[in-house]
């Protein structure tokens, strides 16, 4: 992933130091054509630096075979950041976690004799040093470190190792020291950081990660800056789970508290999450969407009000930059969680934070003759210690409701015409590499080397029994004599299961085939790399009334991948035969193909795969990831969200009881305008493509409020204009944005008229709210607040 921050000053090496805010942009979770726009929106949001991980398994997919093209063009990405006038932070790792497949490590490492990953093990250290040195040398050659005139001001070695270090015993601290010495020997002339590493040796800078608590974090060296490497803007999503959210007010509160308590640099993880294209999602069971409820959503739109509320926060903090950098700190703790913090000194204009850490009670603070109101769980920023310019709980930015609209480039019927072909199972073509036979049941990723989600094993047998298969996941399809006898998948959080089905055999020789499928490899934890997948040793048994046969040590034949994968059907080669006319539905292991016209305009494109089961999708040969819309999210866990107090990933959820993921991002760069495009689906579980359709994503409604004397601003996206003013009322309406109704207060004819005159037909508008707006609402107490809703 890649991250961003905000502040224009250098990062200091002693405290106090300049305040900096950064955030993640996932370089390889978005197509390179999106990079400039996302980087620019990040800069407009008040950020000063982009941070990126370096994905080892993407750059070295096979040992000593390197790839830095397309979305993996690291040097081009860093140059884009530099061209935008932003700094960069390079998190080399090379372990990244990131909910990325296998934590970003290449699975081929497991083939190296005597290797143990992420510990004091010489084969591992040799490979890690080789890759880290490769990246550093490339960056040096391109002149991208700050001391060379480039944008990179920090680099990171390892990642969150302190969270798992004790699991490696005495070898853990030795490995940490080696990482430090190895990194320092590369002489990059900018500081190295180690996140979540309390025992990071000098000159490494240890940093903090989390939803909260980093305001109280103290580096292990008094001369190190206080850095928050990952402030989680939301959370990742699992198949079978609701959508997690983190409200703008809570996120802003934690950022303000961090800088109130002498913070130097803060990073948003993620500022833009993007999409897990291909087979890059880890977990296991991480969805294809990596939206993360980030300030820039999966499609690159600003998520309002989060993006705008943070933009205003960044601008407010920058007004205090000199005081935060050079001032001395005075802090007064009052009752009930109230804190007054003042930065001041010779030649420095004073700047203040007021914070209310009480999650229930609003409060007032009396300071030098003035009274200030602080909502519960909020921070106020006063750049001159007199006037409040920002409060984390007072959101003044518009709320945008995103909607999906049908593809207007196609015929009114919007029908996709499908052709199909079955996946050839059983005695089909050889898999990736070659087929082989062993008298054992092997761990899956050690066999596939992550070339495919699928591994097929066959054994011949003559008896009549119940088939029992013990597997470590994630999905199992069982066949007898090429006939599917049953399928089963592990539930998220419990991937091990025992598959049992009654089976009937023919006289003579019979063949049992087991197709084992993975849904992302584990990416976190001590020795996570050893977490088993597939049918590891079984046992695989045939259970009868009086006899049990253990087939685990029988002769098993292995094939990596499916026939369609090996033949690269997704590239739509002419040599592949397709059937047209009537086509099967709800039949597992079927390939479907359709052509379509790209939606007109510049709005983001998605494909609605409701009705499909589980599989993988491609557009014009580009993988848009795994799909699994028939895996429904839990019905529990969605309730009214109160962001105040301790925050967790399941505190504010939506989408309970709905498909885990229904819509899948199709980047515009994957599409051809004015000519046919091809959608290819491999359906593993059985589905019906008749409901599949393409839609665009855009702003449907926008809502904003402003008090008299303030400015009300409204905006649509990507060329869309405001088409109607739907609601304008003083005081709080009933309902939510998109469905406002008259509530307390009164509707304002004057406001309606001015807003229509100023906003209709425009992409954006700003209006100063004066007393004239509320003539007909003169009985309401001042200051009156106008609430407006428009349609884009």
TrEMBL record:
Boundaries of every SUEL-type lectin domain copy: 706-792
Cellular component annotations (GO), alphabetically ordered: apoplast
Gene3D superfamilies, per the entry: 2.60.120.740, Galactose-binding domain-like, Glycosidases
UniProt EC number: 3.2.1.23
Compartments, record wording: Secreted, Extracellular space, Apoplast
Coiled-coil parts of chain: none
Molecular function via GO: beta-galactosidase activity; carbohydrate binding
UniProtKB keywords: Apoplast, Glycosidase, Hydrolase, Secreted, Signal
InterPro entries on file: BetaGal_gal-bd, Galactose-bd-like_sf, GH, GHD, Gly_Hdrlase_35_cat, Glyco_hydro_35_CS, Glycoside_Hdrlase_35, Lectin_gal-bd_dom
Superkingdom to which the source organism belongs: Eukaryota
GO biological process, one term: carbohydrate metabolic process
Reactions performed catalytically: Hydrolysis of terminal non-reducing beta-D-galactose residues in beta-D-galactosides
Plastid among keywords: no
UniProt xrefs under CDD domains: Gal_Rha_Lectin_BGal
UniProt keyword annotation of Signal present: yes
PANTHER family: BETA-GALACTOSIDASE RELATED
Family the entry assigns: Belongs to the glycosyl hydrolase 35 family.
Name of the protein in its database record: Beta-galactosidase
């Amino acid at each position: 992933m890649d991250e961003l921050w905000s502040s224009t000053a250098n990062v200091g090496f002693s405290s106090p130091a300049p305040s900096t805010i950064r955030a993640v942009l996932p370089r390889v979770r978005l197509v390179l054509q999106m990079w400039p726009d996302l980087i620019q929106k990040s800069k407009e949001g008040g950020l000063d630096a982009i941070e990126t991980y370096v994905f080892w398994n993407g750059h070295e997919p096979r040992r000593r075979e390197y790839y830095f093209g397309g979305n993996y063009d690291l040097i081009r990405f860093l140059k884009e950041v530099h061209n935008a006038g932003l700094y960069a932070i390079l998190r080399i790792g090379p372990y990244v976690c990131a909910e990325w497949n296998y934590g970003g490590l290449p699975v081929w490492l497991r083939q190296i004799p005597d290797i143990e990953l992420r510990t004091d093990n010489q084969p591992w250290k040799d490979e890690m040093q080789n890759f880290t040195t490769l990246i550093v040398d490339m960056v040096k050659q391109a002149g991208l470190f700050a001391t060379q005139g480039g944008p990179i001001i920090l680099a990171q070695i390892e990642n969150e190792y302190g969270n798992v270090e004790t699991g490696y015993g005495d070898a853990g601290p030795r490995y940490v020291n080696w990482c430090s010495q190895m990194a320092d020997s590369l002489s990059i002339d900018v500081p190295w950081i180690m996140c979540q590493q309390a025992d990071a040796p000098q000159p490494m800078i240890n940093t903090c990660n989390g939803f909260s608590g980093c305001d109280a974090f103290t580096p292990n060296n008094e001369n190190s800056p206080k850095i928050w490497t990952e402030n989680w803007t939301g959370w990742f999503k699992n198949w079978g789970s609701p959508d997690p959210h983190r409200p703008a007010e809570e996120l802003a509160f934690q950022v303000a508290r961090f800088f109130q308590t002498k913070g130097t640099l803060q990073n948003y993880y993620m500022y833009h999450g993007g999409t897990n294209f291909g087979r890059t999602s880890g977990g296991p069971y991480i969805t294809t969407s990596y939206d993360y409820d980030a300030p820039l959503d999966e499609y690159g739109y600003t998520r309002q009000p989060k993006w705008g509320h943070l933009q205003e926060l960044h601008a407010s903090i920058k007004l205090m930059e000199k005081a935060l950098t050079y001032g001395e700190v005075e802090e007064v703790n009052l009752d009930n969680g109230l804190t007054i913090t003042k930065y001041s000194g010779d030649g420095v204009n004073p700047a203040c934070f007021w914070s209310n850490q009480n999650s229930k009670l609003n409060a007032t603070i009396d300071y030098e003759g003035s009274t200030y109101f602080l909502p519960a769980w909020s921070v106020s920023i006063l750049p001159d210690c007199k006037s409040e310019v920002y409060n984390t709980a007072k959101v003044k930015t518009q709320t945008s409701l995103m909607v999906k609209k049908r593809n207007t480039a196609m015929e009114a019927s919007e029908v996709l015409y499908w052709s199909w072909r079955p996946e050839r199972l059983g005695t089909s073509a050889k898999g990736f590499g070659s087929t082989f036979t062993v008298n054992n049941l092997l761990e899956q990723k050690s066999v596939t080397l992550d070339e495919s989600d699928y591994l097929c094993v066959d054994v011949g047998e003559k008896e009549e029994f119940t088939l029992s298969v013990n597997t470590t996941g994630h999905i199992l399809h069982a066949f007898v004599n090429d006939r599917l006898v049953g399928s089963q998948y592990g539930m998220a959080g419990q991937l091990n299961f025992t598959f049992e089905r009654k089976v009937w055999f023919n006289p003579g020789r019979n063949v049992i085939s087991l197709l084992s499928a993975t849904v992302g490899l584990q990416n976190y934890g001590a020795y996570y790399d050893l977490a088993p997948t597939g049918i590891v040793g079984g046992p695989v048994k045939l259970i009868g009334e009086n006899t049990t046969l253990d087939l685990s040590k029988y002769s098993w034949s292995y094939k990596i991948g499916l026939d369609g994968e090996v033949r690269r059907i997704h590239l739509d080669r002419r040599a592949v035969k397709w059937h047209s006319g009537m086509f099967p539905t709800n039949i597992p292991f079927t390939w479907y193909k359709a052509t379509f016209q790209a939606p007109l305009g510049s709005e983001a494109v998605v494909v609605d795969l409701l009705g499909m089961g589980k599989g993988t999708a491609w557009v014009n040969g580009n993988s848009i990831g795994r799909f699994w819309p028939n895996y429904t999210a839990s019905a529990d866990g969605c309730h009214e969200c109160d962001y105040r107090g301790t925050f967790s990933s399941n505190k504010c959820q939506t989408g309970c009881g709905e498909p885990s993921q229904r819509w899948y991002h199709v980047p515009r760069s994957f599409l051809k305008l004015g000519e046919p495009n091809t959608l290819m689906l491999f359906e593993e579980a059985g589905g019906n493509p008749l409901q599949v359709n393409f839609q665009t994503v855009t702003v449907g409604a926008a809502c904003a409020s402003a008090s008299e004397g303030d400015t009300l601003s409204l905006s649509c996206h990507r060329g869309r204009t405001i088409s109607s003013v739907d609601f304008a009322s003083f005081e709080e309406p009933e309902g939510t944005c998109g469905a406002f109704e008259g509530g307390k207060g009164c509707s304002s004819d004057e406001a309606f008229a001015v807003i229509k005159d100023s906003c209709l037909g425009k992409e954006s508008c700003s209006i100063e709210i004066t007393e004239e707006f509320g003539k007909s609402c003169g009985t309401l107490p001042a200051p009156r607040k106008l609430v407006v809703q428009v349609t884009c």
